[in-house]
Amino acid sequence: MSILSLFVVIPVLMLLGLWLSRNLNQVRGVMVAGSTCLLLLSVWLTVTFVQMRGAGNTDAMLFTYSVPWFKPLNIAYSVGVDGISVVMLLLSSIIVFTGTFASWQLKPMTKEYFLWFTLLSTGVYGFFISIDLFTMFVFYEVALIPMYLLIGVWGSGNKEYAAMKLTLMLMGGSALLILGILGIYFFSGADTMNVLEIAAKHNIPVEVQKVFFPFIFIGFGVLGALFPFHTWSPDGHASAPTAVSMLHAGVLMKLGGYGCFRVAMFLLPEAARELSWIFLILTTISVVYGALSACVQTDLKYINAYSSVSHCGLVLFALLMMTRTACTGAILQMLSHGLMTALFFALIGMIYGRTHTRDIRKLGGLMKIMPFLSVGYVIAGLANLGLPGFSGFIAEMTIFVGSFENADTFHRTATIIACTSIVVTAVYILRVVGKILFQKVADPHYETLTDATWDERFSVCCLIFSVAGFGLAPLWASNVIGDAVGPILQNIL
């Protein structure tokens, strides 16, 4: 069995442990033990992967393992990782670990909540290690299904509507995906669903690629907040409980960009080249529209949700630029945004748990009342608007420099338009920080509120350390990602 299978085995053992737990302390113990093991495993995998690449191992995928699952359709449980998968696994483990502590005080039905939360994380881990199309799709569905209950039962606000809207739109994307996957399988002539083997055969006719490329790209793009299929995202984020918002925006939405690059563009390269201009227009709209929409929101979660639409749109935008620098920046942006938005949603959930409102018009003076959470919010905001020293600056600069490498007018115009989102982001971030932290106290009752507890401080500090760490020392991640992006782009171009 491959070491990668532990990323699925450990969450399954966590599910068993949670099911057997009889009290809150046992539930917390299982979650802390399991999430810690996953974090340590992902760190070990990252270090080992870097060492193997440094030693000269140039295989497309490392730690590969395959066993037949359903032979009539040549479906196999096939796993393997490259640099992109490794950083996504590291991101996922950080978010699951910190999300556990962010949900430390969650009630009621804590056990049931963590059961569904762990099932969601199982799907995420399985998706990132899979190199078989059908296995990847199965884990993709496992990651989506728990969202309905996590939002519909433990959410807030108009949670039933948000949960149903999210589920229907993502399942609609899944329907397009299964059609696209079957089209790739039957027209590739490779008699396999292994991504690497299909790419090596390169047998899919161009006209067929043009039919199935939109199915795959839109199917994954729905989860990646592609305009105009993004509308589920703000409602889903706003209604989800704190840790679910962290995992949802921090990791789950990254499945969209990852799938677009790994499946749609890698396996259907001619269609990607010929049809990219259509989706480039849509992603440019996503980047600017998401930022402008965030400016007019009054709910903290909606502000961050529309910010996520803009930043995830930037991921797809950079991938469609099809330069090595831009695509490396896209993966860095997935990593950076995952950490930043998880930090944002964690802090918003903690503030909401005390003030019982997310309306910025009813908040004020929080820096005086809860200084730790307020300073954390300022740091998250500065990282989000791309301040040098944080991960957001490295990712966005890499994207825009790489995008401008395309010498034609169309691509450079789209890049300039997308760059305007930086200014708009500064507007809504600084507006919110000034409004809720530094104006006078909006409600005398807020004077009695307490600052962050130990579990909240631990979660926030871990995320701040990660955001600053990737911002100050990004070279290793950039090199690992760039080495993985190169072979994919060679197949596309």
Architecture overview:
With 493 residues, the chain is mainly alpha-helical. The protein has one domain (3-492). It is built from 20 helices and 2 strands. It has helices spanning 6-20, 24-54, 83-102, 110-129, 133-154, 159-188, 195-201, 206-223, 232-239, 242-252, 254-267, 269-295, 300-321, 324-355, 366-369, 371-384, 391-403, 409-438, 454-472, 475-492; strands at residues 62-70, 75-81. Helix 4 (110-129) packs antiparallel against helix 5 and helix 13 (300-321) packs parallel to helix 17. The radius of gyration is 21 Å and the shape is globular. The mean pLDDT is 86.
Instruction: Characterize the overall form.
Output: globular
E-strand count: 2
In terms of DSSP E residues, the strand content is under 5%
Instruction: Provide the succession of SSEs.
Output: HHEEHHHHHHHHHHHHHHHHHH
Total number of helices: 20
Helix content: over 70%
Based on CA atoms alone, the radius of gyration comes out at: 21 Å
Q: Average the pLDDT over all residues and give the rounded result.
A: 86
Number of domains: 1
The rounded distance between the terminal residues' Cα atoms is 35 Å
Structural class: mainly alpha
The major pleated sheet works out as: 2 strands, antiparallel
Spans of at least 5 consecutive residues with low confidence = none
Order of the strands making up the biggest sheet: 1-2
Protein name: NADH-quinone oxidoreductase subunit M
InterPro entries: NADH_Q_OxRdtase_chainM/4, NADH_UbQ_OxRdtase, ND/Mrp_TM
Keywords: Membrane, Oxidoreductase, Transmembrane, Transmembrane helix
Membrane topology: Multi-pass membrane protein
